[in-house]
Design goal:
alpha/beta; Metallo-beta-lactamase, Chain A; 7-stranded mixed beta sheet; 8 helices; 14 strands; globular; binds D-malate; binds manganese (II) ion; binds zinc ion; Metallo-B-lactamas; Coenzyme PQQ synthesis protein B; transport; RibonucZ/Hydroxyglut_hydro; PQQ biosynthesis
């Protein structure tokens, strides 16, 4: 199973258009690599790919990745796009894929409803680009020979659909993880997760590789840095650090572990930071745009 990180950053990207934090300024100045919004491509043969989440940066991401280039006059190596939630950073890229070339959009009913409820997505012609609804816990072929299974992970409705009251640990069809199996290896892609429950630990125990929500280093990062007013958990994202953080909760997992969907405020973007050293010292990788791995 081959993976190509199309984008490692969380919503907004690195740098984010309106952010003058140290990371964003360093990315603008080229002192650290800039990064697109989160998206992961997966393939068995390196020719036919599935894209997990279509970020608003997908045009640039495809341009930068020869794997994603057309090999004929009007054509794409992308056979399917799978959506793990209805947030803008994961669906808006569909609008860039509207030029009458076939692929399949896979998502749960609830995530399909987000597309159906926003008529702008009708620009992606359903006659050419079928939308296939996937039930939880039901394997399907994401690509020929590559089976995927969606399962609920704790999360919330998309930011732009939040009401007055927001439940941040919903377990249903609005936020899902993806199990990928090729008959040889098993990988998981979970770019948004509010908390690692014991149930989730059990579900991913067989992982050979895990791409996991690395949005924030700690829960009050956006408040502390003056960039926001919400905690990570309020945003549906577990922090990396701390006793209930992802590193501690996933410490027993024997898999190649990679953080993806990393917010621009996160200190792990800085290669020389203590936080990056902590992450790598605990056996985790930090995803980078264009990075290819194989299991
Ligand atoms: C998130 O992951 O919390 C969302 O992408 C937020 C957003 O839509 O900007
Ligand atoms: Mn996001
Ligand atoms: Zn920033």
């Amino acid at each position: 199973m081959k993976f190509l990180v199309l984008g490692a950053a969380a919503g907004g990207g690195l740098p984010q258009w309106n952010c003058g934090c140290a990371n964003c300024n360093d990315a603008r100045a080229g002192r650290i690599p800039a990064s697109g919004q989160s998206s992961l491509a997966v393939s068995l043969d390196g020719r036919s790919w599935a894209v997990l989440n279509a970020s608003p940066d997908i045009r640039q991401q495809m341009m930068a990745s020869p794997r994603m280039h057309p090999t004929a006059l009007r054509d794409t190596p992308v056979g399917s796009v799978l959506l793990t939630n209805g947030d803008i950073d994961h669906i808006a890229g569909l609008l860039s894929l509207r030029e009458q070339t076939p692929f399949t959009i896979f998502a749960t009913h609830e995530i399909q409803q987000v597309l159906a409820g926003n008529r702008i997505f009708d620009a992606v012609n359903r006659q050419v680009v079928p939308r296939v609804t996937i039930a939880l816990e039901t394997p399907f072929d994401l690509l020929p020979g590559l089976s995927a299974t969606l399962f609920a992970v704790p999360g919330k409705v998309p930011l732009f659909m939040e009401g007055a009251q927001v439940q941040t640990d919903l377990e249903g069809e609005q936020t899902v993880g993806v199990r990928l199996q090729d008959g040889r290896k098993t990988a998981y892609y979970i770019p948004g997760c509010a908390t690692v429950t014991d149930k989730l630990l059990g579900q991913i125990a067989d992982a050979d590789a895990l791409f996991f929500d690395g949005t924030l280093w700690d829960d009050d990062e956006m408040i502390r840095t003056g960039t926001g007013v919400k905690t990570g958990r309020r945003m549906g994202h577990i922090p990396i650090s701390g006793p209930d953080g992802s590193i501690a909760r996933l410490a027993g997992l024997k898999a190649a572990k990679t953080f993806i969907h990393i917010n621009n405020t996160n200190p792990i973007w800085q290669p020389d930071s203590a936080q990056r050293a902590f992450v790598t010292g605990n056996g985790w990788q930090v995803a980078a745009d264009g990075q290819e791995t194989e299991i």
